[in-house]
Write a structure and sequence with these properties.
Blueprint: H1 3-8, H2 20-23, H3 30-47, H4 49-60, H5 63-74, E1 76-77, E2 80-81, H6 82-111, H7 118-143
Antiparallel strand pairs: 1-2
Helix pairs in contact: 3-6, 3-7, 4-5, 5-6, 6-7
Length: about 150
């Protein structure tokens, strides 16, 4: 190839990953937001598994352990007030609901991949986010004693 031909060739656009400065202003599509939150909710469930097991064990072992369980959410334990433990439980509730809902969405899309389109992905992501957040609000209101 001659040198004059390489000089006149147009430079191809250079696409790079999102840098940290534009990460705040980047507008995530709903499908990627739901998928990313599915991963985050799985990590939350994994790391809070000892807390989940503790809650389950103390809620069903005996009446005394159940009273201890209730006191942790009303009075507090380990130097933290009960409000903080309720927030942690609310995080577990959200993570469980979102991970289950988004998991069903992913399973549906994996098994029916011929019928999946970009619009379908956006719509199902919106459904997952709305259902998850609304159920979390309802159960959070119950957890904090609003009804």
């Amino acid at each position: 190839m001659s040198e004059s031909a390489t000089n006149t060739a147009t430079k191809r656009p250079d696409f790079r990953n999102i840098d940290s400065a534009s990460l705040v202003s980047y507008r995530w599509p709903l499908a990627s937001l739901a998928s990313g939150m599915h991963r985050v909710s799985g990590a939350i469930l994994f790391f809070l598994m000892p807390f989940i097991i503790w809650m389950f064990d103390n809620s069903i072992s005996s009446e005394i352990s159940f009273q201890k369980f209730k006191a942790a959410f009303n009075v507090g334990m380990l130097g933290l007030p009960g409000f903080i433990w309720k927030l942690v439980a609310l995080g577990v509730i959200w993570a469980s609901l979102h991970h289950f809902s988004a998991g069903i969405r992913h399973l549906w899309m994996d098994t029916h991949h011929q019928h999946v389109s970009k619009d379908f992905g956006r719509q199902t992501a919106a459904v997952v986010l709305v259902v998850t957040l609304s159920l979390t609000l309802v159960l959070g209101a119950k957890l904090f004693g609003l009804y």
